């Protein structure tokens, strides 16, 4: 059954996908609704996005609507919602599917310390816990070797206790304002007494965002933000934000800091419970449905051919996110299994008479269900572009002090920071890769589809963004991570006929490197810095992209 739709405006591409026609009503954009203010006492002013249509800048060609597909699903018994989750606005942020009726949360009252479901006793299927503490920054006392005055001294917070958190960042009111200065934090490990050294937080993060003029960018909810920094389990924090001098030689003035600076402390919550043993053979999932052509497979996979019962812990929102991957794995699966090249070609139904398929084996992909995404945080609609003509590689700039076992927690933290703190509709990147080479589904909408992301300002249309978790300006990326990038691009680019060693011409939606409307020729596998003047994906990772291109093309059989 078709869920709510979103209509996007995107760029004309050489290999545009043709989506099936639907009822006349589907051609109209989804209605815009006002974004509700935050109702959470732990995160003032940071509410989740409401449902809205997504428009991507480009050459003005309207994209056809691409709905999330789902069959009729049986309702499953709902469990108690864990305390600590914030209510996601005035209505559940998820696709309405038949047979699944989430309980309507009771209004949140001032002074409440538990979510409405915990307070009023409502029941719904369990979601991972998590929380965000938002603390306004205060003026700092100017040190003696600097110009006296709060503007020169900057803003921050003295050492203080906090509820447990694992990721930090600083946000401010105006998404178009830049923070000219430095941001540093110190944290105290949970249950300990010693404090870490000062750690730098990457301040230039605006280039990881929805394109200028897009509905996601102009929603009124987007805020300026630093990159998030993973600090591990902590319960104490200190932060200082120093403005840079307007005249470095005389140090006579300081560039004003943005208004409304706040420190965001993100708790990712617990990891999801392990999946029960499957009756299917290990490492394989039987195809549930197949499309007739590469285009329709990539943009609008067929619904399941059989009706599946909803797993016990699957909410309406989770079911909608999982249903768009129904051709690849069962509903509610934590993992999309790897396939051989022959199996991938058969599953994708791309083998035409006399044509040689250039597509790599499908790699194992951990789904949003697998890493524990709370689907109530994201906007309910999915947004698509026409194709995937290029891949932009990023580093998350969250630091390298995480273990592979912690990677799902890092992802849940970034996801919450992108939506609750930065005001985005969903996780910004289409995929993520950890230091052990595990590949994760990013922004919801279907891993085989052309999902519109918010990863490369000016070049989100007809591309995908891959974030390698970590910071790689001065640290070499693990070989496993580079190999994972090769495997992922060989498969995903192959679905859309793109050559990983080739070139592509993209139209800029506007960035600090290329004006809107500029046609730019770049590598099919590019680094973020190729479309924006930025350090991302870090000099050390950027140097590995040539190897990734060669390996990816080889996996495609080129």
List the helices and strands and how they pair.
Layout: E1 9-10, E2 61-62, H1 116-120, E3 131-136, E4 138-139, H2 150-153, E5 155-172, E6 181-189, E7 199-201, E8 224-225, E9 229-243, E10 262-267, H3 294-299, H4 316-323, E11 335-336, H5 341-348, E12 365-366, H6 368-371, E13 390-395, H7 407-421, E14 431-433, E15 439-441, E16 463-468, H8 479-495, E17 503-507, E18 519-523, E19 525-527, H9 539-542, H10 545-556
Report the total helices.
10
Task: List unreliable stretches of 5+ residues.
Answer: 1-125, 144-150, 278-310
Number of strands: 19
Q: Whole-Å distance between the termini? A: 39 Å
For the residues shown, what is the average pLDDT?
74
The helix/strand order is EEHEEHEEEEEEHHEHEHEHEEEHEEEHH
Helix content: 10-25%
Gyration radius, rounded: 23 Å
Overall spatial form: globular
Largest sheet: 8 strands, antiparallel
In short:
This protein is an alpha+beta fold. It has helices at residues 116-120, 150-153, 294-299, 316-323, 341-348, 368-371, 407-421, 479-495, 539-542, 545-556, and strands at residues 9-10, 61-62, 131-136, 138-139, 155-172, 181-189, 199-201, 224-225, 229-243, 262-267, 335-336, 365-366, 390-395, 431-433, 439-441, 463-468, 503-507, 519-523, 525-527.
